Amino acid sequence: MAVPLRSRAPKKQSISTGRKSQRTPKLSVVAPRRRRWPAIFVGIAIFVVIGGMLGAAVFHTQLAQRQLEIDGLERSVDEARERFGALRRDRAVLRSPERIADEATRLGMVRGTTNEFVSIDPDALARQIAAGGVVSGDVVRVLDDADPLDQFRDVKAVSAGQP
């Protein structure tokens, strides 16, 4: 037969002391909980510092790229200014009266003997304009040599931007 190792009956308490002790010892299973907020604060601070450093690196990269673009634009402006200066010098040479007189002589032209101006009848001018049609509002406009850029604008306005 099998004999149980434990008995099922409740144990009897010994009544040797007669009374329970009033003092129970303090039991401590785990250490008291430490506060976690300093660790969380340090983690957030590190995250903010790393984010700030990455932001500064991105900002510096963007700044360097923009500076390269600005340098390229400044180079192209300098080249355009040099080209404009060269074109102005060429224009001055081509418009010089000596060169025009030499070129006219080479082409077989001679100086006129008279310096009379022909006056045109306003009715004849009106008929000619009506027959040919008006190209612009200022038909009898005289170019003024005040500013070369104004002449350039006038030429571009007439040619509609074509070279």
UniProtKB/TrEMBL annotation:
Keywords: Coiled coil, Membrane, Transmembrane, Transmembrane helix. The chain crosses the membrane at residues 37-59. It comes from the Bacteria. The keyword Transmembrane helix applies. Residues 1-28 are annotated as: Disordered. Residues 63-90 form a coiled coil. This is Cell division protein FtsL. It comes from Ilumatobacter coccineus (strain NBRC 103263 / KCTC 29153 / YM16-304). The lineage of its organism: Bacteria, Bacillati, Actinomycetota, Acidimicrobiia, Acidimicrobiales.
